[in-house]
Model the fold of this input.
Amino acid sequence: MAKKQKIKMSKTGPITITAEALFDASKPRFNGYATGHGAHGHRGYDRNAMKRRSLDW
Done:
């Protein structure tokens, strides 16, 4: 997903929002952990995996 662009606030007049920014703002934010398909694979040091690896010889 593309990075969200910051909308600059106008101090002198009415605020204009592009149609693309309005469309992006209306979309729900994706939360991978809510659907059970979040971060994949092992992240960082896994003590139990290291124990299993040392016992498998």
Observations:
- The mean pLDDT is 77.
- DSSP finds two helices and no strands in the chain.
